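Before relying on records like the one below, remember that each one covers exactly one chain. Contacts with other chains, cofactors or solvent are not represented anywhere in the record.
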Amino acid sequence: MAGATALALLTGLWLVRDGSGDGDVERPPAPVAASAATHAAVPNDAPNRVDAIPLSASVPTRIRIPSIGVNAPMSGLGTGPDRRLSPPPVDNRNLVGWYRDGVAPGARGNAVTVGHADTRSGPAVFFKLGLLRVGDRIEVQRRDRQTAVFTIDAVRSYPKNAFPDELVYGPTRAAELRVITCGGRYDKKTGYAANVVVFAHLTNTRQAIR
């Protein structure tokens, strides 16, 4: 309940404010399935979906997405005075943030993670997020030595002026994951026009060998 309440506070907000690039570097690729209007309202509710048993809460320490070469440490993020989730520091291009007042990845509910697509010095950790496909795997290593393995259900791009807050941030019955970065058209004054959102659900867990 605490995690669901914390996530509800983000309703009406963009998790990623804008890009940090200077407009002169290569732009991140957009998802193939870029239009939300062409998909079902709830991308994680496939009729043949299989869920693993949720884990107890534990702090995430590392995220791996093998198909796009992501292997990055994770750090907890809070909200600022404007109730927006503070982005990871731009001086560390290989760092992924986790909303620490929400659900821990692998636990029951909706865990939210965010990372930069690029910075002023070039591509960052989620530069290739839009290239992910349904069925790809995301692994989150946790402090309790458990690894939560998620399977991707959908990769979407939503305009920031029509962002579906409840769909992305809202509570879920099962253990799910949202991975978010900037995307779409880039403007030097206003930043990126959209957010890329990956929807995934827990399909396996692994215990580290001591």
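The first helix runs from residue 2 to 8.
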